[in-house]
Design goal:
The protein is an alpha+beta fold. 21% of the residues lie in helices and 27% in strands. The strands form ten sheets. The chain has an eight-stranded parallel β-sheet. Strands 3, 5, 6, 9, 10, 11 and 12 form a seven-stranded mixed β-sheet that branches. β24 (349-352), α7 (360-373) and β25 (378-381) form a beta-alpha-beta unit. α13 runs parallel beside α14 (539-554). It starts with 5 loop residues before the first strand and ends with a strand. The mean pLDDT is 96.
Length: 654
């Protein structure tokens, strides 16, 4: 890659120090190199911008000469408040004015020369002394959609079925919404009978996977199978069990070293709820029934009572007014608040549904309260984009500034790796996309991101990796019946092993969506919510997951070791994880190790390459996925061969 005559690279400490996000009240040094050939530079300015203070232009000083040019530098103090700083450079010469800013992909690193105002580089400024509880950094998470995991009743009977609901007698049937043909509204919800007792009975299985966090999709009472239309925030849905069942689940899980994270759906309730009570199901006075209801201020009516704000236009999910004092008191502040109630029963944290639809003040209050109850509790937000610069409903979000979220669902991570595995982006582009997150996220957030590859909101990963036809090309019946062919499945399984290998060795918290480790297939909701295939698991895949989780647990470097992105080839992406001098990236005492992870996404080509490891000593390296086969260092080079769709974890023998 040629370097332009004006040059800055935000990934290199020579040009930007320190790298990435920084706390308030810290000095940042920026440099720009200019190689002049026939032009005279008159002056160079650094242009800074924050939403709070607007524009500042700072002259840059000449620091040292380079071949046919000069290095310019400038140092400034970060603000005393969390924010985003945006910067670019202005170079004035005798032939005109040039701008140097972020590249066209706006991924940081090497930028571009422009003749007009360019896209700016970002620096995330976060609250001093911000951190995430250290126990979380070494965690592995497992997500369960409760109705579809396991029925724990002795006779397999479904607990307390909803009136008019559709109950399956075949656990392995394909789920389906029963809708009105004209309006598309759901007429009946279908249930398989999974419950909290079933999770309790499968704790030994979850322990055998060596996970230590269970994230449960909503468990509160509601008329639906998905429970995102809450009817009673303080009651377990009777189809799932009761409060005692949940308390015992938390207690038994804790004894096995497993913490429970609950799904909090606070941007809306159900219309058929204690609070709205549109169907008059509950004896209390709901907001739909009367403005005299104690819950009336929780909702926003345009024309009372039938025209009200609702989530994405779905009238069974009326939006809440999260800043209403009585709503916040009920959820957060009261002595018997929803937060206090469930954490007293054993919940270790929360995942906030649609975090971008919750006011920042609500998230801050929520976080403050759960940390008062348990300083080691965790708050995760559903965010689908880069969480450092998300704008939602005209508001710049402050998720990672130090007063809101501990972690975010890392959908960008999923997209980046899926694009690489499927051939939509190459190794270098994958490197750039991941480095972009690394640069924008505070280190403690990068290492606490919830790194998922599957969830209840996206098609099953195996289906996507098997090159299944696009959903839009199939009818509903065809979608329901579709299964990968033997050849497609063979390819998909190899790709999933490659993808999960990267997931389990990457900084952050890997999350397994129930059944992905067992080979479940399915398009979007409801087909991505099929039941766990007890007795029909893909045993080879299951063994694979247990093995790579064991490897992650074995090496501290794979949790909190340093991370160096290492693009090798168009079809190969890799990185290095290491702990040196007995300290991890957070300064904690950990065991030393150096580890390379490489993945060849090509389905056809075996690829040979060499990595220069001369600076790492002459100790041999071993391929721990292939019988600890030793790979010697020859002339300072590590010579590696990757077969088609093969990944390797290579550990140095220290």
């Amino acid at each position: 890659m040629s370097i332009p005559w004006i040059h800055h690279d935000s990934y290199q400490s020579f040009y930007r120090k320190p790298f990435g996000a920084v706390p308030c009240n810290q000095k940042i040094s920026l440099r720009l190199s200019i190689r002049t050939e026939g032009e005279t530079v008159h002056h160079v300015h650094l242009r800074l911008w924050t939403d709070q203070e607007g524009e500042k232009k700072m002259p840059m000083d000449q620091l040292e000469p380079i071949n046919h040019g000069q290095i310019y530098g400038g140092t400034f103090d970060t603000p005393s408040f969390p924010c985003l700083i945006w910067y670019y450079f202005i170079v004035s010469t005798d032939k005109g004015t040039y701008f140097y800013g972020n590249n066209s992909l706006q991924q940081g690193g090497m930028g571009q020369i422009y003749h007009q105002e360019p896209p700016a580089y970002q620096i995330t400024i976060y609250k001093e002394n911000s951190s995430v509880p250290s126990w979380f950094n070494s965690s592995i998470m497992y997500q369960i959609f409760v109705d579809r995991f396991f029925n724990g009743t002795e006779d397999g009977k479904i607990l307390n079925p909803k009136p008019g609901s559709y109950l399956y007698t075949d656990w392995y049937a394909s789920p389906s919404y029963i809708r009105d043909h004209e309006t598309g509204a759901i007429q009946q919800y279908d249930f398989f009978g999974g419950n909290l007792l079933g999770i309790r009975k499968k704790l030994s299985y979850l322990k055998s996977l060596d996970i230590n966090i269970l994230y449960l999709n909503p468990i509160f009472e509601s008329p639906s199978n998905h429970k995102y239309d809450t009817a009673d925030y303080k009651k377990v849905d009777p189809m799932f069990g009761d409060t005692d069942t949940f308390r015992l689940l938390c207690q038994e899980a804790k004894e096995l070293g497993i913490s429970i994270i609950l799904d909090g759906v606070f941007s809306h309730t159900g219309s058929d709820s204690i609070y709205f009570n549109k169907n008059s199901t509950y004896p209390s006075l709901g907001a739909y029934q009367s403005p005299a209801s104690p819950y009336y201020s929780w909702f926003r009516f345009a024309v009372y009572p039938d025209q009200y704000e609702c989530w994405w236009g779905i009238d069974t999910m009326p939006n809440t007014n999260e800043i209403a004092p009585s709503f916040q008191n009920f959820i957060i502040h009261d002595e018997a608040s929803v937060v206090q109630h469930w954490m007293n029963l054993g919940a270790k944290g929360w995942r906030l549904d649609v975090a971008d639809e919750l006011p920042g003040s609500f998230i801050k209050a929520f976080r403050k309260r759960i940390k008062q109850i348990d300083p080691d509790s965790i708050l995760i937000g559903e965010v689908w984009e880069d969480a450092s610069n998300k704008v939602s409903h005209g508001e710049s979000r402050e998720y990672l500034f130090g007063e809101e979220l501990d972690s975010v669902m890392n959908y960008p991570f999923r997209r980046i790796l899926l694009d690489f595995i499927l051939g939509h982006s190459n190794g270098q582009e994958t490197h750039g996309s991941l480095m972009h997150l690394y640069e924008n996220y505070p280190l403690h957030h990068f290492y606490a991101a919830m790194n998922l590859v599957g969830s209840h909101d996206v098609p099953r990963i195996l289906t996507l990796l098997g090159d299944a036809p696009p959903e839009s090309t199939l009818s509903k019946d065809e979608l329901s019946r579709y299964q990968l062919s033997n050849e497609q499945k063979k390819k998909a399984l190899k790709r999933l092993k490659l993808l999960s290998l990267l997931q389990m060795t990457f900084p952050g918290i890997p999350c397994i969506y129930y059944g992905d480790e067992a080979g479940l297939e399915g398009y979007s909701d409801p087909l991505n919510r099929r039941t766990y295939p007890w007795g029909k698991e893909n045993q080879d895949l299951l063994v694979w997951y247990k093995n790579i989780i064991k490897i992650r647990r074995q090496y501290d470097a794979l949790s909190t070791g340093s991370w160096i992105s290492w693009p090798i080839h168009e079809d190969i992406y890799g990185f290095m994880r290491s702990i040196e001098f007995g300290r991890d990236v957070f300064g904690k005492d950990k065991s030393n190790s150096r580890i390379f992870v490489f993945a060849n996404r090509s389905p056809q080509h075996e690829i040979h390459f060499s990595s220069d490891v001369a600076l790492l000593g002459d100790h041999a390296w071993v391929d721990i996925l292939h019988d600890n086969h030793e790979i010697p260092v020859l002339n300072g080079k590590l010579n590696i061969t990757l077969k088609p769709l093969e990944g390797k974890i290579i550990v140095q023998k220290l």
